[in-house]
Design brief:
Layout (H helix, E strand, L loop, with lengths): L2 E7 L3 H14 L4 E3 L8 E6 L6 H18 L4 E5 H14 L5 E3 L7 H9 L4 E3 L7 H4 L11 E5 L1 E2 L10 H4 L4 E2 L2 H13 L4 E5 L12 H9 L7 E5 L8 H9 L6 E3 L7 H6 L6 H14 L4 E8 L6 H14 L3 E6 L16 H24 L5 E9 L5 E5 L5 E5 L8 E9 L4 E5 L5
Parallel strand pairs: 1-2, 1-3, 3-4, 4-5, 5-6, 7-10, 10-11, 12-13, 13-14, 17-19
Antiparallel strand pairs: 8-9, 15-16, 15-18, 16-17, 18-19
Helix pairs in contact: 8-9, 9-11, 12-13
The structure holds 5'-deoxyadenosine and iron/sulfur cluster.
Length: about 425
């Protein structure tokens, strides 16, 4: 009988991809994935360390799993991802419940580690192994799958923004060779995938293709059956001319770009070690929009970085007004142990909370305006799953808006023209106006 594996994924899309690969790595050991922890033979928490309380969240989740271990002494519990990488030894010392700890660069060793836990050992691996995990992971399965997929092409970061743990948890920038990426993409397409999102902590610093990320995108665009390409997440300094141009000339590259700026204040950008200023960023945005006028922009912002004054914060509001984002993520600064900014004096909590609320109100208005601007327009939707109402289907437009329709002519994996008729807080409604491809 198959053993049951439950993986709980926190954090970014790369963790979603990693969880999928971890499940695949354990499949030959007889595991199939399940949707709930109850009755599982192995539970993996694939964790995120980007902001505060990450480790505390892991400990409280482990606490919740305790009764399951009491019911089933054979249950194995593992911690993976960036908290495992950063605090693995401590987790093992503090929480006897944990059988296995594996960092994000070592999960190809899960089968051996799982076997060790079955032999009664506690298995811990948080070094960066010499070998590349992608060379050692089992071949991906051939089974049909949904129409969208993530594909990791680059990992790690050499930028060392003063607030960020990523260079420490994920290590130095590494790019997968283009030939390997293309082969994996081809396999995904054969399994029914029509849209691929290329992932990397600094994906536009990709150098596994002579033409950089743009070269890889052009090579991928040659794959028959692949309809859409996206990538995330990018650093402004790696937005080269070829990549900007591709937004205007590569039909398969979707008009949506997540380009974090973090702050609109030059003083704070410098203190953050971002290595660009607000004008540089606005210039890149202008060039991108010249290449692709309907590009929808998304960003990340941190408020209350150490030393941020009201005037600095107002610069951020001004930058947001100048750009006009269709989507954005904003966070209160949280000190991460081991990062340079953690040594500096913090902005008061209530000031951070006030700034976050003001920034989010502005970003929300912009998001709503971008959605409302779609009403009356025709978009193409790649349908992913049935909606909540009978006969309803939900998918994503070119601009990554969730769109729902009620139709009996579309199904999973169809790409169909849709006229947008209304805008709800987080999605659009439309009607199918042509044949699905
Ligand atoms: N505090 C708050 N936000 C952070 N981010 C990264 N590190 C921190 C931190 N220490 C945010 C940045 C980044 C996103 C993934 O998370 O905005 O772009
Ligand atoms: Fe972190 Fe900056 Fe690297 Fe992004 S670019 S992962 S924010 S250090």
């Amino acid at each position: 009988m198959a053993k049951k594996l439950y993986i709980k994924t926190y954090g970014c899309q790369m963790n979603v991809y990693d969880s999928e690969r971890m499940a695949e790595a354990l499949a030959p050991a007889g595991y199939e994935t399940v949707d709930a922890p109850e009755g599982a033979d192995m539970i993996l928490l694939n964790t995120c360390h980007i902001r505060e309380k990450a480790a505390e969240k892991v400990y409280s989740e482990l606490g919740r799993l305790k009764p399951l271990k009491a019911e089933n002494p054979d249950l194995k519990i593992g911690v993976a991802g960036c908290v495992a990488q950063a605090e693995g030894e401590e987790i093992v010392a503090r929480q006897p419940l944990v059988d296995l700890v594996v960092g994000p660069q070592a999960y190809h060793r899960l089968p051996q580690m799982e076997a060790a836990t079955r032999a009664g050992e506690r298995a811990v691996l948080t070094e960066f192994p010499q070998e590349d995990k992608f060379d050692h992971l089992a071949a991906r399965p051939k089974a049909a799958r949904g129409p969208t997929a993530f594909l990791t092409v680059q990992e790690g970061c050499d930028k060392f923004c003063a607030f960020c743990v990523v260079p420490y948890t994920r290590g130095a920038e590494v790019s997968r060779p283009a030939a390997r990426v293309l082969a994996e993409a081809q396999e995904l397409v054969e399994r029914g995938v029509r849209e691929i999102t290329l992932l990397g902590q600094n994906v536009n610093a990709y150098h596994g293709h002579a033409g950089g990320l743009a070269g890889l995108i052009w090579a991928l665009s040659e794959l028959d059956g692949l309809a859409r390409i996206r990538f995330t997440t990018s650093h402004p300094n790696d937005m080269d001319d070829a990549l900007i141009a591709a937004h205007g000339t590569c039909d398969k590259l979707m008009p949506y770009l997540h380009l974090p700026v973090q702050s609109g204040s030059d003083r704070i950008l410098k203190a953050m070690n971002r290595k660009h200023n607000a004008a540089d960023y606005l210039d890149i945005i202008a060039r991108l929009r010249a290449a692709r006028p309907d590009l929808l922009l998304s960003g990340d912002f941190i408020v209350g970085f150490p030393g941020e004054t009201e005037a600095d914060f107002e610069d951020t509001l001004r930058l947001v007004e100048a750009v006009g984002y269709g989507q954005a993520y904003s966070f209160k600064y949280s000190a991460r142990p081991g990062t340079p900014a953690a040594e500096r004096d913090e902005v008061a909590e209530e000031v951070k909370a006030d700034r976050l609320a003001r920034l989010q109100a502005l970003l929300k208005d912009q998001q709503r305006a971008a959605q409302e601007a779609m009403v009356g327009r025709e978009v193409h939707v790649l349908f992913e799953k049935p909606g909540r109402e009978p006969g309803q289907w939900v998918g994503k437009s070119e601009h990554l808006h969730a769109v729902h329709v009620t139709s009996d002519t579309v199904g999973r994996g169809d790409l169909a023209p849709v006229r947008i008729i209304d805008s709800a807080p987080n999605s659009l409604g439309g009607e199918v106006v042509g044949a699905a491809r």
